[in-house]
Design brief:
Length: 428
């Protein structure tokens, strides 16, 4: 069994590092752009007098980095070649994401905004799988280049992890001779609505609460009358672009349908495993950064006349974290590699538990590593002059979003005890 990475992947990491050194780091150094990454980062990024939204200068800088990466042929790595990508693999994305995050904060990769010079495009995959020809033509290339932005309206104020009890409704209606739908309800954590051109809005169109069927998705233009941003939710890690949005007597024509009527949850699930394994890799990389920085500091710092690293009280917590990181890396790469040989349906049926293991444990490990790094670094670790508080505040969200720890554990338990998956006990 060969655990080495494919040579072409290690060569690509070197190519990416060279591009970062040549194009991205100089951009980060220009015009005091370091303010977005040093101790000033939260204030530099956040317009506290404008609902806590991201500052325009911050988002413009991220877009410029993406544009440079796109011109160099890196941004679309994971996309199909027909969209200018390289058909990048799940293994490749996992390795790249870990590699980037292990380098710490920087313009090359800042997951507070889901930003990276090697992009993750779940909406493009959704459009490719479920969009009409007109939707694909209008939105795929525009989504990649930033000319269009599709937010995701699934979660509701009264319903988080359980989308099947959503209260937002759509009913058939004809207005001014145009056949379509009227939408009424509310959505929560609708990230990116301040710049979104469309909201992929999930609604119940038939059935009863709790049914997995009867849910439909619509691509609702954000300027449609009746769509209103009610408030932006301020979060542990600012800035915020996560609003509560109301839909009141919103009318959309039939061509706003995104995917089949009553089968909309398939859209929400179509990229979930890819997202979760990539997030796991990013959290692992951030954990590795915290561990390595702590080791380096402990060897340099000399309280009471000897290196801090001589103390087992310092060594052992980092040993445990490093051991977990090594084991987790193997599981992430094994799982990602196996995903590359399976269809999405097969992944759901045979490998979904392993994806959940990787995701929930990596996010927890990252938080533990950031916390330990603060402890090792003492007062400086607690300050904003180190990245650990930012890493902790950001990655803490992933223990809730993208499937909470409890949801991930429930999936693992279902596989483990044979309620679903390969161990399922056949009735009768």
């Amino acid at each position: 069994m060969d655990f080495s990475l494919p040579p072409e992947l290690t060569a690509y990491l070197a190519e990416l590092d060279s591009f970062i050194a040549r194009e991205i780091k100089p951009l980060q150094s220009d015009d005091d752009n370091e303010r977005f990454f040093d101790h000033r980062r939260e204030w530099a990024r956040t317009d506290f007098d404008n609902d806590g939204l991201p500052r325009h200068e911050w988002e413009a800088l991220l877009r410029e980095a993406k544009n440079r990466a796109d011109r160099a042929g890196h941004l679309r790595y994971a996309l199909p070649k027909r969209y200018g990508g390289r058909d990048g693999t799940n293994l490749g994305m996992a390795v790249i994401r870990e590699h980037f995050a292990s380098q710490g904060l920087g313009l090359h990769n800042d997951l507070q905004n889901e930003h990276s010079i090697v992009g993750n495009f779940p909406v493009v995959i959704m459009l490719d799988n479920y969009g009409t020809d007109a939707q694909k033509e209008q939105l795929i290339e525009a989504s990649i280049t930033g000319k269009a932005r599709i937010s995701f309206g699934l979660t509701e104020p009264n319903h988080g992890s359980d989308a099947t009890h959503m209260e937002t409704r759509a009913v058939r209606e004809t207005r001014n001779g145009v056949a379509g739908w009227r939408i009424d309800g509310e959505k929560m954590w609708t990230t990116g609505m301040h710049v979104a051109t469309h909201c992929a809005t999930f609604v119940r169109t038939s059935g009863k609460d709790g049914d997995a069927t009867g849910i439909t998705c619509f691509l609702v233009p954000t300027q449609t009358p009746g769509v209103k941003i009610e408030e932006y939710m301020w979060t542990f890690n600012m800035p915020t672009d996560h609003p509560r949005v109301s839909f009141t007597n919103v009318f959309v024509p039939d061509d706003a349908l995104f995917g089949p009527v009553d089968r909309g949850l398939a859209l929400a699930q179509c990229f979930v495993h890819e997202n979760r394994i990539r997030q796991a890799a990013s959290s692992l990389g951030a954990a590795v950064y915290c561990i390595e920085e702590s080791v380096r500091y402990a060897r340099e710092r000399k309280p009471f006349g000897k290196p801090l690293a001589d103390n087992q009280a310092i060594q052992w917590p980092l040993v445990e974290l490093a051991t977990q990181a090594e084991m987790l890396r193997l599981l992430i790469r094994k799982t990602a590699s196996e995903m590359d040989g399976l269809s999405r349906d097969a992944i759901e049926k045979t490998l979904s538990d392993k994806v959940s293991m990787c995701n929930y444990w990596a996010n927890r490990l990252c938080c533990e590593a950031a916390d330990q790094a603060m402890q090792v670094h003492g007062g400086m670790g607690y300050s904003r002059h180190k990245a650990f508080e930012h890493i902790y505040r950001h990655h803490r969200r992933y223990r809730i979003t993208e499937g909470s720890e409890e949801i991930q554990k429930r999936k693992i338990a279902a596989f483990l005890f044979g309620f679903i998956g390969p161990r399922k006990v056949k009735a009768g």
